[in-house]
Each structure stands twice: as C-alpha cells, then as structure tokens.
Inverse folding.
C-alpha cells in the first residue's frame, strides 16, 4: 500500500482556470505536509507547506489540509502555461527525518 | 541564506566504471542530508540519508554507497556502475526532523552506457 498517493494525470486545464491537485496519505499522525513543483529535467522546488487543518494561501496557490480525512490539496488559481509541471506531495510522518513523496501529478495548462 | 551545491550536472559513464557525486551545503550547520534517485518518468526513490558526520542510513540495497566525511558534505559512490544506475540523482538537505521540508540541489543526470 502506497503511503502517499496522487493521481499521475496528466491534468489538463485551460489558461486562467483553477487547477486542483489532490493527495492522500496513510499515516494518521503525519504532522507536516508539502507541495513541490518539478519542471521537466529540473529538481523539485518547494512551493507550499502546511501544518494545521484548513487553508493556507500564498499568491495564486492555496494548500488545503484535512487531517480527519487524510488528504491535502493544492489549488492554483488563474493557471498559467508556466504552471505546467509535475507537482509532488510530500508528508513528514511522525515528525521524523524523512519525507515520503507521492509519485506526482502532471499538470498541463493549455492556451 | 542556505545554499546547496551538487555537481556535476551531467555525467556519461561506461558500465563498470566508478562513480563519485558530491553535494555540499552552505549557510547551515548539522543539516540532514539525503540522496534520491529519479528514474525517467518515475517518482523519487530515497537512497541514503544522514543526520550527522559518519551516520548513514541506507534505504535500498544496491551497489551504491554514501559517505559524509564533513558536516556539510555528502558523497554518493559506486565501485562499478550498472546500466540500471542511470537516472537523475538529487541531493537534498533539511533542518533537524525535516519539519520544514527539503531543499534540493540542481541534480546530476547520470547516463550509464
């Protein structure tokens, strides 16, 4: 059983739309949650972190966490072609030294 | 501010040759350090991590090894490369307990021929 699951996509949205990326995790005591963006051929870049239930907004990005349902999501408003990338969800289980990554969702923003 | 350096950016090596990839971190002390591999179109596979000098945890048995000779230096090695060792190798660092996530280096694309 995968510990952090994401739909691999590709998720295609038109420019200007809201992109919704979802992630579920298995460990109920997970404490820290992260979203990384990875452009093709590049290394992952941390774009959002969230630690408590609810929403956290940063510019066009909103991370949502629901610990009871064990899911975390990323909303991208006013999607741009430059948002086209693979988005990785990562979870720090039990406050340990390692993050567990999902396999990523490929997002394509079309003109 | 903290920075992480990883080199080389690309590497083409013949099967059976040795490998040494180096990663260094600046601007922090006693970081956690990690080596990941990402095969083409695949997810991140944790290879090794270290919470201190000389302390190495191996996640996946293979013909690779890691060493941490200094606080902010992490080295990935192999004595004899296999074709299956090809991939994108990423070094990352975090603060203690990774509560603030990782910062990744720019990666090394290794092709074993």
């Amino acid at each position: 059983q995968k510990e952090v699951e994401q739909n691999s996509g590709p998720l295609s949205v038109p420019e200007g739309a809201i992109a919704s990326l979802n992630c579920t995790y298995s460990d109920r005591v997970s404490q820290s949650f992260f979203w990384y963006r990875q452009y093709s051929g590049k290394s992952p870049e941390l774009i959002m972190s969230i630690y408590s239930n609810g929403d956290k907004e940063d510019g066009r990005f909103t991370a949502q966490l629901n610990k009871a349902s064990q899911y975390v999501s990323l909303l991208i408003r006013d999607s741009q072609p430059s948002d086209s990338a693979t988005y990785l969800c990562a979870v720090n289980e039990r406050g340990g030294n390692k993050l567990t990554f999902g396999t990523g969702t490929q997002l394509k923003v079309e003109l | 501010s903290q920075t992480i350096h990883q080199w080389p950016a690309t590497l083409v090596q013949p099967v059976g040759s040795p490998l040494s990839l180096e990663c260094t971190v600046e601007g922090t002390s006693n970081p956690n350090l990690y080596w990941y591999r990402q095969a083409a179109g695949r997810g991140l596979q944790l290879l090794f991590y270290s919470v201190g000098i000389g302390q190495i945890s191996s996640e996946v048995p293979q013909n690779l090894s890691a060493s941490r000779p200094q606080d902010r230096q992490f080295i990935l090695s192999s004595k004899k490369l296999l074709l299956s060792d090809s991939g994108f190798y990423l070094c990352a660092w975090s603060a203690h307990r990774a509560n603030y996530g990782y910062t990744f280096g720019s990666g090394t694309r290794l092709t074993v021929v």
